[in-house]
Design brief:
The chain has a 22-stranded antiparallel beta barrel. A five-stranded mixed sheet has the order 5-10-11-8-9. The chain has a two-stranded antiparallel sheet with strand order 1-2. A hairpin with a 7-residue loop joins strand 1 and strand 2. Helix content is 2%, strand content 57%. It is an all-beta fold. The chain folds into three domains: 46 residues, no CATH class; 122 residues, Ferric Hydroxamate Uptake Protein, Chain A, domain 1 (Beta Complex), CATH 2.170.130.10; 538 residues, Maltoporin, Chain A (Beta Barrel). The longest helix has 6 residues.
């Protein structure tokens, strides 16, 4: 019998005591007790942890608790509640990841590295399964991915070449679009204005239409952002030719497809165009600037069978990079003016099949093919030189992975292996109408004959479930990365000197062993920790030839090339925490330690200073990030703190970029009659910091956005 106060009571008439009583209630554990007269019975909630499912571990859906590797996920809600203006800034929420974007939205690009390694080419970035890394430079253009159009981000830490091959050297960042089937119709209109006369307009429309046994879906996202920018040097270093770092960027993405309970097929097409100033203006109306025009297309199919899944996708990416460069030497007063016209294309296919076997084991097998090409010109207007480079890189691979639950599913054992074949071809570099200033290149003849390599990337791992909330893992894996076309077929001036092409470069390789523990949802606390050791071989470093040349700058530049001459040892530790002490408050924090050194610097045919024992440049030993979020019925407030330790700016550890701390803030209201308002403040304390080249960060940037949304349930 239930009373007015909700208390249950059982009449004791005709009940022999003591008696056994079973209590069952939805959401609570079944309880059996032996009662005597007038006993009170306590029952306890049955809290069952929701499964976190990811696709990045092996390309197929999988419970993250079953994977013997460190994988993290950032939800769409977290992305929207943090002070994120660019997609790469989402990664502050992930331990073990370093994001170098000191000039905020005005940065030319971001540098995302992982696990104590430098170079963005060592991190594979996927968009809905398709690689975005370019064969030419190895990295991606982070500016073209709008964080407002991201559904979630998954990060695989440590070498993942056993599944993904090249570029997955230090890890994988997988960006997934929002779910277009979350509501029958959704329209978003967003506009914002902020510091440096920066304004942006965004809109998004998504809809799905019921069809026989499934649904057709459609989504269109558009964005535009412009800003006047700021001066990137301190007043004492400014010249008459320095100007602000303005930006102009536009992007559009369309997705469409069909989905039912067992399969889906979809297409994606996006276009991106931007101009980003270098902060120098002499004679030309826009001064020195970089322009990226990118087209990306993808077709994807997934299907389920009685005992498995299919995945197939094809993609194409074309980036037309243009750079206008004009400058006046600070010492010699010489004027230089040239353009870089660099069309780059990348395309590929992937097919993968997962089969669930009778013993609850699963087998995954598949293959990849990728091809990248570049055909670029560097056209000088203050001399007669026209530099032309071209080259292509093809990669083909097959892979297989097997995992088996053991000991009543408390232990998951996994093994996998991948074979890659990579080929460099069509390489060439030439100078049309060479001037006296470029004749020195003839002293460094380059043999552009085709080159090819193979790699075998194994992986072993185990995860043991000690308790429903506590597990541990250990894994061993290999990674490899083919050389970049830019290093193999380009002669050009860089910050350090003048780079000579080296088509004989070999792939970099790494062996990694790691272990970690997960404590999930214990008294509102989640802790994840990992420790790792990596041994890298054939690492690519610049070596000096001993010569120097006059390239028209303030002084002569050393001639150098990139060569495989270094062995690296990297040890690291990371810990991340999620704590919700009370319903309105959420605390997220992470810490990363990396000890990254050159353990052996073997000789080269050219001169090279021995840097054995030196730290790897651009790797901060300590990283700290913390987020505190408060929510109520009116809105939310998130405070972010980030600390980045000093990073060596050169291989010999002579100069460095100083450590810095940063406070960011985002506040937003809940939706009221379709409207909501949010504001982000980067660098609340307005303390700009400088890098090793004396380039300043933007300082405090304030943006206020208003959004109107229509959603049909």
């Amino acid at each position: 019998i239930t009373g007015k106060d909700g208390v249950f009571s059982i009449p004791s008439d005709n009940i022999p005591f003591p008696a056994e009583l079973r209590v069952s209630m939805m959401g609570y554990r079944d309880t059996v007790v032996l009662i005597s007269f007038a006993d009170t019975i306590f029952i306890f909630p049955n809290i069952e942890r929701l499964r976190t499912v990811v696709v990045s571990a092996d390309r197929h859906l999988r419970d993250i608790s079953e994977i013997p590797q460190r994988i993290e996920q950032v939800s769409e809600t977290l992305i929207q509640q943090t002070a994120t203006r660019n997609a790469d800034e989402v990664l502050y929420l992930i331990s073990g990841v370093y994001n170098d974007r000191n000039q905020g939205i005005y940065s030319r690009n971001a540098g995302v590295t992982m696990r104590g390694m430098n170079s963005t080419a060592r991190v594979l970035v996927l968009y809905d399964g398709a690689p975005l890394n370019k064969a030419d430079g190895g990295g991606i253009n982070w500016n073209r991915i709008d964080p407002d159009f991201i559904g979630k981000v998954e990060v695989v830490k440590g070498p993942a070449s056993a599944i993904y091959g090249g570029n997955a050297f230090a890890g994988v960042v997988h960006i997934l679009p929002p779910d277009s089937l979350s509501s029958p119709f959704r329209l978003k209109l967003n506009t914002g204005y902020g510091s440096f006369n920066t304004y942006e307009v965004k809109n998004s429309i998504a809809a799905h239409i019921p069809a026989e046994k499934g649904r057709w879906y459609f989504m269109l996202n558009n964005m535009c952002r412009k800003g006047g920018g700021f001066y990137q040097y301190h007043d004492s270093l400014l010249t008459q030719y320095d100007t602000t770092l303005f930006i102009r960027e536009y992007g559009s993405t369309i997705q469409a497809g069909y989905r039912n309970k067992v399969s889906s097929i979809g297409i994606t097409y996006s276009i991106w165009d931007d101009i980003r100033s270098d902060g120098v203006k002499v004679n030309e109306p826009l001064g020195s600037y970089n322009k990226f025009s990118t087209h990306f297309a993808q077709a994807k199919f997934t299907g389920k069978t009685e005992k498995g899944e299919w995945l197939a996708l094809a993609y194409f990416q074309k980036e037309d990079y243009f750079r206008q460069n004009e400058s006046v030497g600070r010492k010699n007063g010489k004027y230089r003016y040239y353009d870089i016209v660099s069309p780059r294309s990348d395309a590929g296919t992937t097919i993968s099949r997962k089969v669930v076997l009778n013993n609850n084991a699963s087998l995954i097998a598949g293959g990849d093919f990728r091809h990248g090409f570049v055909n670029a010109k560097e056209i000088y207007y203050t001399s007669t030189d026209v530099f032309i480079k071209k080259g292509s890189m093809s990669q083909a691979a097959v892979f297989v992975q097997y995992d088996q639950p053991l000991l009543k599913k408390k232990l998951i054992a996994l093994s996998g292996i991948r074979f890659d074949y990579a080929r460099f071809s069509n390489g060439d570099f030439s100078v049309e109408t060479p001037s006296a200033g470029s004749e020195f290149i003839n002293a460094y003849p380059v043999d552009f004959s085709d080159n090819e390599w193979t790699a075998v990337s194994p992986k072993l791992g185990m995860r043991y479930l000690f308790h429903p909330n506590f597990s541990g893992y250990v894994s061993y894996s290999h990674g490899f990365r083919p050389p970049m076309l830019d290093d193999m077929c380009t002669n050009r001036s860089i910050t350090k000197g003048f780079k000579i092409a080296n088509p004989k470069l070999l792939p970099e390789r790494v062996k990694n062993i790691e272990a970690g523990f997960d404590l999930i949802d214990y008294r509102n606390i989640t802790l994840k920790t990992s420790v790792w050791y990596s041994l890298g071989t054939d690492f690519q470093y610049f070596v000096f030839t001993g010569d120097s040349v006059d390239t028209g700058g303030d002084s002569e530049k050393a001639v150098m090339l990139r060569d495989n001459i270094a062995e690296a040892k990297i040890t690291g530790f990371e810990i991340s925490a999620f704590y919700k002490p009370v319903k309105p408050i959420t605390l997220i924090a992470n810490y990363t330690f990396s000890h990254s050194i050159i353990s052996d610097f073997s000789g080269s045919q050219f001169q090279a200073n021995d840097i054995t024992g030196k730290f790897i440049m651009e790797v901060p030993p300590h990283l700290v990030n913390a987020f505190l979020t408060y929510e109520n019925k009116y809105g939310y407030l998130t405070l972010q703190y980030s600390f980045v330790d000093k990073r060596w700016a050169d291989d010999e550890n002579i100069s460095y970029s100083p450590a810095y701390s940063l406070f960011n803030l985002k506040a937003g209201t809940v939706e009221f009659k379709g409207f909501s308002v949010s504001s982000t403040i980067h660098d609340i304390l307005d303390k700009p910091y400088a890098d090793s080249n004396n380039r300043l960060s933007a300082g405090r940037i304030v943006m206020v956005n208003v959004q109107y949304q229509i959603t049909k349930k």
